[in-house]
Design goal:
The protein is mainly alpha-helical. It is built from 10 helices and no strands. The chain is elongated.
Length: 197
């Protein structure tokens, strides 16, 4: 299967004609031509938002994979304008996801610092290794109520957001937040108890 049309033939077709032919035939060569025409535009949008060349190149490929599906579903009248919007939205979603993940990592670090590094001088004085601390953390998690344990593991260890935890467990968003909050508090108590033993 060809992914690109001959130069002479491709120049004679408008964006709309290429889209129509792609929708009728599902042949990738028509999207390949659109890709050739607009890669520079999509890359410029991605670079503007993502700032990194490699991230922008990856995003360009992801966007064109996405539009191969979207062109089959939607009737696009102004391809260039629509593509610009798709590229911009893709980048904004990527940045939101990055910020969300960063926030989770920072939150987990705070929690980990609160649990694993609890009373750091005491840990050092008692010659607690990092491995021992992690073992204690695992034991402390194991002592939580089942619903707290499940939510804490999903949220902190598997890095799921509140909504994802709710969907996986079947608990309401309010319950998930409550189980995580109470789980954090009980973990701290369990860790303190282990240190005192």
């Amino acid at each position: 299967m060809k992914f690109f049309l001959s130069a002479q033939k491709s120049q004679s077709l408008s964006d709309q004609e290429l889209i129509t032919r792609y929708r009728n035939s599902h042949e990738n060569k028509y999207v390949g031509e659109l890709f050739q025409r607009y890669t520079h535009l999509v890359y410029a949008v991605c670079l503007k938002y993502l700032k990194q060349e490699d991230d922008s190149k990856d995003a360009v490929m992801e966007i064109f994979e996405k539009i191969m599906l979207e062109l089959k579903r939607h009737d696009i009248q102004n391809f260039k304008g629509w593509l610009h919007s798709v590229a911009k939205n893709h980048c904004l979603m990527h940045l939101r996801k990055e910020q969300s993940e960063l926030k989770k990592v920072e939150e987990f670090k705070k929690v980990e610092d609160g649990f694993v590094e609890l009373e750091l001088p005491a840990h050092l004085n008692n010659n607690h290794s990092k491995e021992q601390q992690l073992n204690e953390l695992q034991l402390a998690i194991g002592q939580l109520k089942p619903e707290q344990k499940e939510c804490v593991e999903l949220f902190y260890l598997r890095e799921k957001c509140y909504q994802e935890v709710a969907e996986i467990t079947g608990y309401s968003l309010k319950q998930v937040k409550s189980y995580i909050q109470n789980g954090k508090r009980n973990l701290k108590i369990n860790m303190s108890t282990m240190q005192d033993e």
